[in-house]
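User: Earlier you gave me the apo prediction for this protein. Now I'd like the version with S-adenosylmethionine bound, so I can compare the two side by side. Same sequence as before, with the ligand SMILES added.
Assistant: Got it. Here's the input I'm using:
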Amino acid sequence: MDVADGEELTVAAALAQARHHDDRIDLRVLLGHALERPLSWLLAHPEATIDGRARLLFESLWQRRRAGEPVAYLTGEREFHGLSLRITPAVLIPRPETELLVDCALELLPAGKATRAADLGTGSGAIAVALAFRRPLLQAVATDISSEALEVAGDNARRLGVAGRCSFRHGAWLAALGRERFDCLVSNPPYIAEHDAHLAQGDLRFEPRAALAAGPDGLRDLHIIVAGAGAHLHAGGHLLLEHGHDQAAAVRTAMQATGFSLVHSVRDLAGIERVTLGRWHVDHAHTADYANRLS
Ligand SMILES: C[S@@+](CC[C@H](N)C(=O)[O-])C[C@H]1O[C@@H](n2cnc3c(N)ncnc32)[C@H](O)[C@@H]1O
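And here is the structure of the complex with S-adenosylmethionine:
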C-alpha cells in the first residue's frame, strides 16, 4: 500500500492505487467488501476515511490480490445468473460462460411442468441452484467427487431457498446417479488439457486442479459423461455440456456416435462454440417440435 502507516486513508486514496482498469474493479470490490458498502456509496463518498478493522481488512485483501489470489476467494462470493453465491477455494469460481449453459437448459425445461435435472460436477452448486431458482417445479440432483464442494453447494441452495428441491450426491460422474433417469443432464466438467500452460497462470493457479484438468487433451471427462448419459435420461431427455473453445466438434461427434439426435453447439457472447447439446432417443414426432423450439 502506497499510503504511509499512520497516514489517513480515504476512499479516494485507496481507489487511486489502481494501475490499470482491472485493478480499479478489484479495488472497488475489495474496499466495498471491507467497508460493507455498495459501489454507489464508495463513489458518493470519496472523502470518507477508512480506519480500524475495515482498513486492516482492506489492506490485507489488497495485498493478497496483488499476490494473485482471485477476488471471489477473497470476498467469498460471486454473482452467477443474477444470484449471489458463496464461494470458497474448494470450488471453481463460476464463469459467465456457464450462464449460457443454464440459459440453454432453461429453454428446454418448461416452467409450468414438474421436471428433474442433474448437474454433474456441481462445484459451488451454480448450475443446479440457478435452475432450481428459475424453475419452481424443478427437482435438481447435484453431484460432485468433492465432498467439500457439495457442502458449499448445499449452503448455496439453503441461502437461496431451493434446498427443498435440491439433493446432493457424492460420487464420480454418472455413478453418483444410481439407476435414476432424468429429463435433463447438465455438466460443466473439467476440460483443460493437463499440461496446458494456463493452469499455472492467473486465477487458475488457485482453483482446485480436479475442477480444471481432464487428461492429455482435456476431453477425458466429457467422453465419460457422453458415454454414460443415455442410461440416465428418459427418451427425449437432453444432455447439455459446456466445453473448451476448440472441443465442440469432438463433443458433437461423440454424442452422435453414442445415439444422441439433434446434436448442435451454441456460441457464447464471444462467438465461441461453448455448449453442445442433444436429445436421447428422440423419435420423429418430437423432431419438428424440437427444431421449432430452437429456431
Ligand atoms: C469445471 S468445475 C464446474 C463447477 C460448477 N459446475 C460450475 O460450473 O461452476 C468441475 C467440477 O467437477 C467436479 N469433478 C471432477 N471430477 C469429477 C468426477 N470424477 N466426478 C464428479 N465430479 C467431478 C469438480 O470437483 C468440480 O466441482
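For your comparison, keep in mind: The chain has a mean pLDDT of 94.
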